[in-house]
């Protein structure tokens, strides 16, 4: 379905369209946690084949937030084992298999998600989120209690009372 759904107290708050990992780079299903949200993150490319084949970056090179080679955008939410939720490089990323294992979101959506998480956790960080959109200053929102994240792959889903069958 290419959806990220935010839940609070057992109720669906909002769903966002996403792009996910290519078939060769799927994000493993299962439970994870997020303990921080990083605004204006640097990117450190991993030592992997797709990076080594790139002519624009080197493994472990630190790519600053304002560098056009940085694919993370304004916000990243680490999920452990180098998997992230981050901004999409292009709107066409959404609804497609596009990443090397990360979950990609539109800029407005990831900002909205970050605001909702901060609000639910009673963090008064709205000004940091606003400032991040117009600067390259790195800021971190620390979640006192880790946020549970469940990565799943369901081919049969009931949404708004309607059964949807998604192809494998």
Number of helical segments with 4 or more residues: 3
Largest sheet: 5 strands, mixed
**Fraction of residues in helix:** 10-25%
Which regions are unreliable across 5 or more consecutive residues at pLDDT < 50? none
Structural class: alpha+beta
> What value does the Rg take, in angstroms?
16 Å
Percent of residues in β-strands: 35-45%
Globally, the shape reads globular
Biggest sheet: strand arrangement: 8-6-5-4-9
Order of helical and strand elements = EEEEHEEEEHHEEE
Could you give the count of β-strands? 11
Distance between the termini: 11 Å
The gist of it:
The chain has 168 residues and is of the alpha+beta class. Helices cover 15% and strands 38% of the residues.
List strands and helices in order, with pairings.
Blueprint: E1 3-8, E2 11-17, E3 20-21, E4 30-39, H1 49-52, E5 75-80, E6 83-87, E7 97-99, E8 103-105, H2 107-120, H3 126-133, E9 139-151, E10 156-159, E11 162-165
Parallel strand pairs: 3-7, 6-8
Antiparallel strand pairs: 1-2, 4-5, 4-9, 5-6, 10-11
Summarize this structure as a short list of keywords or feature phrases.
3 helices, globular, 168 residues, 11 strands, alpha+beta, five-stranded mixed sheet, single chain, two-stranded antiparallel sheet
């Amino acid at each position: 379905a290419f959806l990220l759904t935010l839940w609070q107290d057992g109720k669906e708050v909002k769903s966002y369209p996403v792009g996910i990992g290519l078939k060769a780079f799927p994000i493993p299903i299962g439970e994870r946690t997020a303990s921080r949200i990083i605004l204006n993150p640097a990117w450190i490319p991993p030592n992997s084949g797709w990076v080594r084949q790139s002519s624009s970056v080197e493994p472990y090179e630190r790519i600053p937030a304002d560098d056009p080679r940085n694919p993370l955008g304004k916000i990243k939410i680490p999920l452990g084992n180098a998997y992230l939720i981050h901004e999409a490089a292009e709107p066409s990323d959404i609804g497609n298999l596009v990443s090397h294992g990360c979950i990609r979101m539109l800029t407005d959506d990831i900002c909205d998600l970050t605001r909702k998480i901060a609000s639910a956790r009673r963090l008064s960080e709205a000004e940091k989120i606003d400032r991040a959109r117009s600067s390259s200053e790195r800021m971190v929102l620390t979640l006192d209690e880790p946020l549970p994240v469940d990565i799943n792959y369901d081919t049969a889903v009931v949404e708004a009372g309607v059964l949807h069958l998604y192809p494998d």
